[in-house]
Amino acid sequence: MREVIRYPLAALRDWGYSRFRFLRPNPKDYSTIVGVGSVVPVQIEAYFLALNRYVEENAKILDVGFGLGYGLNILAIKAGDVNGIDIDFKVLRYCQNTIVGRNPRLNVLNIFDGYTIPFSDESFDVVCCVDVIEHVEDFNRLIKEMMRVSRKGVFLSTPNRRPENTNKDGSPKNYWHLREWDYPEFDEIVRKFGSIEWRFINGANEGPFTISTEIDKNTLALAPFIFKVRV
């Protein structure tokens, strides 16, 4: 009965947010901690895509924006050393109680300022950043910094901007996102940083998913890998 009552209220709230931008919450107030007890299926798929295509056995990996930590556990299936940084003290405390001491391949778990990654150049084989870049104001700065600390490159996954998920003013219906991109827009951004291998995650929000090398009418997430170009 409570679900029936809550649904129209949520729909009314979202309608108000879409019509009146000033009513929307500040995206800077977002915390992944609201998702405790649940997972985002497309994020799981993205981490497995990174694991299966780009993570070598015993690699050293950094997950930027580790959130609830389940991506770190997936990456540890192959990686020998997994590390995570996030801006959110709430999720750090949560993961300290849920994966620290349980994931034997977890090395560093820490807070950063959102831009300056506290590691030296080429500290990691691969850097992963799943469903984070759409929350970042200066996304170019963060991508550049992730490339700096990687040896092989950076794996990104971000929502594909679809009409049904976009307000009339062009802003995302997900009011915690600063922006979303379509494939040509995001391709133009990432190509500035290296050689790109494109993958697309296709399917409904709850799955199942397919992975393709070309954009599809059902593409849910854009998932490029940026290979570091040696000069």
Task: Please describe what this structure looks like.
It contains 6 helices and 10 strands. Strands 1, 2, 3, 4, 5, 6, 7, 8, 9 and 10 form a 10-stranded mixed β-sheet that branches. It has helices at residues 2-19, 41-54, 70-75, 89-98, 139-149, 183-190; strands at residues 60-64, 81-86, 106-111, 124-130, 150-159, 195-197, 200-203, 209-212, 219-222, 225-227. With 231 residues, it is α/β, with parallel strands linked by helices. The chain has one domain (29-227): 3-Layer(aba) Sandwich (Rossmann fold), CATH 3.40.50. Helix 3 (70-75) links the parallel strand 1 (60-64) and strand 2.
Tell me briefly what this model is:
The chain is 29% helix and 23% strand. It is an alpha/beta fold and 231 residues long. Strands 1, 2, 3, 4, 5, 6, 7, 8, 9 and 10 form a 10-stranded mixed β-sheet that branches.
Search tags:
231 residues, alpha/beta, Rossmann fold, ten-stranded mixed beta sheet, 6 helices, 29% helix, 23% strand, globular, disordered N terminus
Task: Please name the CATH architecture.
Answer: 3-Layer(aba) Sandwich
Supply the helix-strand structural class. Answer: alpha/beta
Global mean pLDDT = 89
Span of the ends, CA to CA: 62 Å
Counting DSSP E segments of at least 2 residues, the number of strands comes to 10
Question: Under CATH, the topology is which?
Answer: Rossmann fold
